[in-house]
Design a protein that fits this description.
The complex is a heterodimer. Chain A is mainly β. Chain A has a domain of 42 residues. In chain A, 13% of the residues lie in helices and 52% in strands. A 6-stranded antiparallel sheet of chain A has the order 1-2-6-5-4-3, with no helix packed on it. The C terminus of chain A is likely disordered. Among the domains of chain B are: 81 residues, 2-Layer Sandwich (Alpha-Beta Plaits), CATH 3.30.70; 67 residues, Roll (Ubiquitin-like (UB roll)); 51 residues, no CATH class; 70 residues, no CATH class. Chain B contains 9 helices and 22 strands. In chain B, the strands form 6 sheets. A 5-stranded antiparallel sheet of chain B has the order 11-9-13-21-20. In chain B, strands 2-3-1-4 form a 4-stranded antiparallel sheet. Chain B has a 4-stranded antiparallel sheet with strand order 10-12-8-22, with no helix packed on it. In chain B, strand 14 and strand 15 form a beta hairpin. Classes of the chains: A mainly beta, B alpha+beta. At the A-B interface, strand 3 and strand 5 of A face helix 2 and strand 2 of B. Strand 5 of chain A pairs antiparallel with strand 2 of chain B, so a sheet runs across the interface.
């Protein structure tokens, strides 16, 4: 089901990351990843970083992962990135 | 890099974070608008991170709520450097004393340097300065340079121009002396060259030769007369005479010119004192030009190791023989002869006549003889030195 907000942002062609608070991710090669609109870190390990987002989690798997920077809005992750994955976590988010 | 410099100026801390569920704790820190970077996971319950020093106090309420501990490992930033200096108090005191000694010492006059004096004694200048309170050891501020200049010019009449200036703790005095041309007590005009006199104009003294006379070098032309006091006056006058110059020049009809064959080789060697090691051998050219560059790699001020790198560029050369026309050869010979004459000739001489004569020479060479007639002033004071002549 598409929420009203999604419909709204699609209709007016507005950026999702602003209206829906969706994560905006930029990856440079496989060494650096710039992540916007996070809601905190859930797991921080050498081979897995789990970032809380509005609707669940975002997972980064790799080797020697490291959080280079963390600010209220963005995260900079470095290391050898192998895979990225979404996880809905505790079922459907109710927003 | 820029980020590091900025954070150095803001001052940052390396902290150790310990406790359970550190991920959550970090999220909380971030939500409190505290910026963290270089977060390193050492163990599940042990992180290391960096944060700005000004944020550290805001961390306290967060830590209290949870069973986490944050410990400062290292303080980095310029203001912490200042704090550390307190521990090395004596070093700082020593530094301040050292700087102040230099600062105080540099406000005194220590040396007087005088340039441009020849006839005036150094001591005379220094004495004048000393009498007026300018001596090594006085404060630089107490020296009025303009007043000193005026004073020195008044008290030492031989100074025509003076300039005083500071160069650190040294007082530089630049002086230009008056050149006092002493009057030549007696003087006769003598001939500088052999010649036949065309014209004599006597301004002072008495001519002892007349127009048409042949004179030889060194012969007296005008003598100075005695004036009322019995002193001999300096003879003055212009003696115009015809002077002849004779020179020969030669040129070969055949000449050789070096031509590069295009073969070249570089030789590299290192020399230590008289010990020479060649890395690339010399070429075996019969005729060559060599362009040698020597560099001393270890050099500091006047000291250098006797180690030299030598790079030599050898270029093979062949000589090609050409023939030039007789006309050209004569032209070259003539030019050579003229150059020889012009070297000897007075710059104010007027050339009146040029006579050339071809010489018979053996062996593919041509020669030329030039006879040049000039009119010039041959009178010069017999006891005058060069300086007075020009002045």
């Amino acid at each position: 089901m598409t929420s009203f907000k999604e419909y709204f942002s699609d209709f007016f062609e507005l950026p999702d990351e602003v209206i829906l608070d969706a994560p905006l991710i930029m990856i440079v090669g496989r060494r650096k990843m710039y992540f916007e609109n996070h809601k905190g870190i859930a797991v921080y390990q050498d081979d897995l970083i789990k970032i809380r987002i509005k609707s669940g989690y975002f997972m980064i798997k790799g080797k020697n992962l490291e959080i280079e920077e963390i600010a209220p809005e963005n995260i900079l992750v470095s290391g050898e990135i192998k895979s990225l994955d979404y996880d809905n976590g505790r079922g459907q988010d109710n927003d | 890099m820029i980020k590091k410099i900025v954070s150095f100026f803001r001052g940052y801390l390396q902290v150790k974070i310990e406790g359970n569920a550190l991920e959550r704790f970090i999220s909380q820190i971030t939500n409190a608008d505290i910026y963290l970077w270089d977060i390193k996971r050492i163990a599940k319950d042990h992180y290391r991170a960096k944060m700005y020093a000004e944020d550290f106090n805001r961390l306290r309420p967060l830590v209290k709520k949870r069973l986490c501990r944050v410990k400062i490992l290292k303080k980095i930033g310029w203001h912490f450097l200042l704090v550390n200096m307190r521990k090395r108090l004596y070093l700082v005191i020593g530094l301040i004393i050292f700087i102040s000694i230099i600062w105080v010492a540099s406000s005194f006059l220590w040396f007087i340097n005088i340039q441009g004096i020849d006839k005036i004694n150094r001591e005379e200048i220094v004495n004048i300065l000393n009498e007026n309170g300018v001596r090594p050891g006085v404060l630089k501020k107490s020296v009025d340079l303009e007043a000193c200049e005026r004073l020195l010019r008044q008290q030492e009449p031989r100074i025509i121009w003076i300039d005083l200036g500071w160069k650190g703790t040294r007082l530089n005095i630049e002086i230009v002396e008056k050149k006092i041309v002493e009057k030549t007590e007696s003087g006769d005009l003598v001939a500088t060259r052999d010649g036949i006199i065309n014209e004599i104009i006597v301004m002072q003294g008495k001519a002892v030769v007349k127009e048409g006379d042949t004179v030889t070098e060194g012969q007296t032309l005008i003598v100075g007369l005695k004036d009322e006091k019995g002193d001999k006056e300096t003879a003055r006058g212009i003696i115009k005479a015809s002077v002849w110059y004779e020179e020969t020049g030669e040129a070969a009809l055949e000449y050789k010119e070096p031509v590069y064959t295009g073969k070249e080789k570089t030789s590299v060697a290192i020399r230590y004192n008289s010990f020479l090691v060649r890395f690339l051998p010399r070429p075996s050219y019969e005729k060559y030009t060599v362009d040698r560059s020597i560099s001393k790699p270890f050099k500091w001020r006047n000291y250098s190791l006797p180690l030299e790198f030598i790079i030599e560029d050898y270029k093979q050369v062949e000589y090609l023989y050409y023939n030039r026309s007789e006309e050209t050869a004569f032209y070259l010979a003539r030019r050579e002869a003229f150059e020889k004459i012009l070297d000897k000739m007075d710059s104010e001489a007027i050339i009146i006549d040029v006579k050339t004569k071809k010489l018979e020479l053996s062996g593919n060479r041509v020669g030329i003889k030039i006879l040049l007639k000039t009119e010039e002033n041959i009178g010069v004071l017999n006891n005058a030195d060069k300086e007075d002549m020009s002045g």
